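hey so u asked for the seq, here:
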Amino acid sequence: MIIVDVFQREALTVLYWHRLVSTEQVRRLVAPTLSPVTVRARLAGLRQAGLADRITREHRPRTWHVTPAGAEVVEAAGAVDARAYRLPGTAVAHLLQEHTLDVVETGLVFVETAREHGHECGPLSWTPEVAHPFRDRAGDRRGVVIADAVLHYVLEEAGRRSQRTLFVELDRATMPVARLARKLVGYIRYHDPAPAGSGRKPAWRERYSRFPRVLIVLSGAYQAVLERRLADLRAQAQAMPVVSTAAGRVDMVATTLPRLLEHGPLKPVAMPLLGDPRWVTVFGRLS
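ran it, structure tokens below
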């Protein structure tokens, strides 16, 4: 049996859960008070033990992932639910790297905000790539919407605890805005209740006490480009009847990763895609 220290155990779990994490992201998630040199040395120890490996690309952050042996160690420990997938081959991992790191960076914003304000959100408080199968209103067609992440956050507001859940969709400016807007339809179909008299509950009620807010995060381009895409996304959402008529049923907001990183989720950084255009926090208008 390979013995690893507390930092290495936690780092290995984070790598397993999020698949690809940069060296600096591991430090910020697991032990922000440790020096980068120490973190690099501890990760190198995991690599020497055959539990983790790295992807190195020129002008890109060094990115870490678990090996099959590392995955077995995490699963044997039982600290997290076993994930159904394994990291694909290196060539595919290169393609996934930037998108996956941006999803981790999005989650990190919430972790660091929670630390600052005494809220609850930790390195494992979001689950990447969560599939939500459902049937349409007629019950004769199956569908599935896959969130890039489902994030849980516990707010402390005036002495009252409030649990919030977000469906996170991250786009690195790789698809037309019109196609991105069409992804919203999947969430609306997932939300919409079963027909009256069918005896079926909406699929989402089996997993959530209330329907999570949909948070679209735009990255992968200059801020000016992202701001234009943000405005275009709201216009597209309002122009699509299936989406525009969902106002009041499905809450959808969008922001940019640079804006989220600069100001944090508790500031008005999110643009509602339907209804009142005034900027809100990613959780809505907090009291």
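The mean pLDDT is 89. Residues 157 and 287 are 8 Å apart (CA to CA).
lmk if thats what u needed
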